[in-house]
Design brief:
Layout: E1 5-9, H1 13-25, E2 29-33, H2 36-46, E3 50-54, H3 62-70, E4 77-82, H4 86-94, E5 99-103, H5 107-123, E6 132-135, E7 138-141, E8 146-149, E9 152-154, H6 158-169, E10 175-176, H7 177-185, H8 190-206, E11 217-220, E12 224-227
Parallel strand pairs: 1-2, 1-3, 3-4, 4-5
Antiparallel strand pairs: 6-7, 7-8, 8-9, 10-12, 11-12
The protein binds calcium ion (CA).
The site of calcium ion has 5 residues, from loops.
């Protein structure tokens, strides 16, 4: 992809400025919108590669912007919200956002999120889902249903395996508790979220050979989990 185009949707001008100055310095192209309506129109007319979306907009709710954009586009959406807006953040992820940044955020954080997203874009092959997934020392053979670490097979329970597959097929993306439990158990009951925590702990343990093994799965407290590309695990 030649010169990524990023749509910055933010009604708070100092924040918008911080973002656009950073993007410019890093050689990204960008467009801006200050309202939800303008965001939807600009997204439709300019086909940006990534959307950075503030959730608190003067007209439309950011979550509504995501729903509208998602009705025709899979463009990666990174939401920006204040820490007090955690429930909105979860709604945004459930509506199809890919990632989030919490205000105040640093320029380094913003750039790290963009790199992760770009990497997902560049490695995504929607038509030909590979049958073997590799991430660092981890390898999952979806067809054979086996998982190995450093070439050595690891034994997972059926639920752990389903969880790992779900996370790996969405590598780089934050998945909410609701999204995961609905995929694994078909519901989003409190008890499923509690089970999820337990299965995630055992899965993590199995993915950790030694104290310096990379962390493949990040916890987003109160929100969900994400599998990271381990080379990018320095963010
Ligand atoms: Ca705002």
């Amino acid at each position: 992809m030649d010169k990524t185009l990023i749509l910055v949707v933010e009604d708070d001008l100092p924040v918008q400025n911080l973002i656009t100055v950073t993007l410019k310095a890093e050689g990204y192209r960008y467009l801006t919108a200050q309202t939800g309506q303008a965001a939807v129109i600009t997204a439709a007319t300019h086909n940006p590669d990534i959307i950075l979306l503030d959730l608190g907009l003067p007209d439309l709710d950011g979550v509504e912007v995501i729903r509208r954009v998602r009705s025709w586009s899979n463009v990666p959406i990174i939401v920006i919200s204040a820490r007090s807006e955690d429930p909105d953040k979860i709604d945004a992820l459930d509506a199809g956002a890919d990632d989030y940044l919490t205000k105040p955020f640093s320029v380094a954080e913003l750039l790290a999120r963009l790199r992760v997203t770009l990497r997902r874009l560049n490695t995504a092959a929607p038509d030909a889902a590979p049958s073997v997934f590799r991430n660092g020392a981890l390898s999952i053979d979806y067809a054979a249903g086996c998982v190995s670490l450093d070439g050595e097979e690891i034994r997972l329970t059926p639920i752990e395996y389903k969880l790992l597959c779900l996370l790996s097929r969405n590598v780089g993306k934050v998945l909410t508790h609701k999204y995961i439990t609905q995929n694994i158990w078909g519901d989003s009951l409190e008890s499923s979220t509690a089970s999820l925590r337990v299965f995630m702990a055992t899965l993590r343990k199995k993915l950790t050979r030694s104290p310096d093994s990379p962390a493949y799965i990040q916890t987003h407290v109160g929100i969900g989990y994400r599998m990271v590309r381990v080379e990018e695990n320095t963010e």
